[in-house]
Amino acid sequence: MSKIKLGFSALLTLILLGMFAALASAEGFTATPSNPAPGINVGTVDNNGDANQHRTHGNFQNNTNSCGNCHSAHNGSNETLLKFQNSEPDMCLSCHDGTMGFYNVKTASGAGIFNSTHESASMHDVGKGIQIGSAPGAYANKSVGELECSSCHNPHGSVNDRLLSESVIGVSYSGVTKGTKSINLELKEDPAYADINNSSTMSGLKITTSVGPKGNTDKVNYAKFCGACHDDYLGSSGAPNHTNHYGHTTNSSSAGRNCASCHYAHGTDITMLKDTQGKTIADYVNGGWTQEKAEAYMKDVSVNSKGVKTSSLKKYTNMAVCWTCHQSSHAIDTQQPEDKYLTDGVDRYGNPIKLFKGKSDIR
């Protein structure tokens, strides 16, 4: 009997060791072009018979195996045959949580950040049961669908940069023919992934960083993209909205007058918020401030129209974004800042003026 017990004990120990080894292996996973995340594998020969890694999102080859990275033909967890039981974001985060290295939505990027662990955090809270129709500024938007990653991105591919959908909650925001690119982002190749960017066998895949919509038309279309859900916020400052209130201009290509001027798409927190100088807490800590002092200074204490404390996905802390622009543009009648905070610039008419140093960051 003792030998049998010893055998079971040894077996249990081996099983536990195997589990820990598997976890350790996943944590220490090294992404490669053909195996970008655990359980994600892509083909290496394209339609033309050339060595070329297949993509997971769109540009599918005739022999693609990409469908199986997200779907299960016979064992899906829901009616769309997705593999993940809990939520769509869980599936997306199986890659975009940093496992691949690039396009980690949990770290700072041009789209913002998904991270609720820091002070002053706010975000598009995907996968939390939030109805799209409950969005701030929703008027015509009556959608009862749940806010998910696919509310904004098309996982099967898009002509727009970053897989931004051509329509949002059924609204064709750009007015262009389907299949026509309407949102170009200002993208730059990420030097951290030069090997991938310089490869001739990656189906043209480039790992890039973004600072937001590129040209004037892109800025306006990007605002309309946001306005599909936040429709009562889309407009000009001189015209009342559906509830007979007035708001800041959001549908212009002018700097400071479109959604991307003031807000991140994914979310924000205290590590990303800036002041009128365009500085973050990291800049102040590097300049000699203590972490505690820098965080106390940058902390967002704003309260929205419903009395809820929130940083509202802003790029600038509190109302610093207002002050950054309106110190010079439509300047308010108040004492002007000390010269040490200002730099030389020009107004919209080409006249020389003094600007906050952070004004150049506002697109």
What does this structure look like?
The protein is of the alpha+beta class. The radius of gyration is 24 Å and the shape is globular. The chain starts with a helix and ends in a 7-residue tail after the last strand. The longest helix is centred in the N-terminal third of the chain and has 26 residues. The N terminus is likely disordered. The strands form three sheets. The chain has a two-stranded antiparallel sheet. The protein has a two-stranded antiparallel ribbon with strand order 2-3. A two-stranded antiparallel sheet has the order 5-6. Strand 5 and strand 6 form a beta hairpin.
Q: What is the rounded Rg?
A: 24 Å
| Arrangement of strands in the largest sheet | 1-4
User: How many E strands?
Assistant: 6
* Mean pLDDT level: 87
State which percent range the strand residues make up.
5-15%
Low-confidence stretches: 1-26
N-to-C SSE series?
Answer: HHHEEHEHHEHHHEE
The outline comes out as globular
Q: Please report the distance between the alpha carbons of the first and last residues.
A: 76 Å
Backbone structural class = alpha+beta
Reported for the largest beta sheet, the result is: 2 strands, antiparallel
Query: Helical stretch count?
Result: 9
Helical percent range? 10-25%
Q: What topology emerges from the helices and strands here?
A:
Layout: H1 2-27, H2 67-70, H3 88-96, E1 122-123, E2 185-189, H4 194-197, E3 208-213, H5 216-227, H6 259-262, E4 267-268, H7 281-286, H8 291-298, H9 320-326, E5 342-346, E6 352-356
Antiparallel strand pairs: 1-4, 2-3, 5-6
Summary?
The chain has 363 residues and is an alpha+beta fold. Helices cover 22% and strands 7% of the residues.
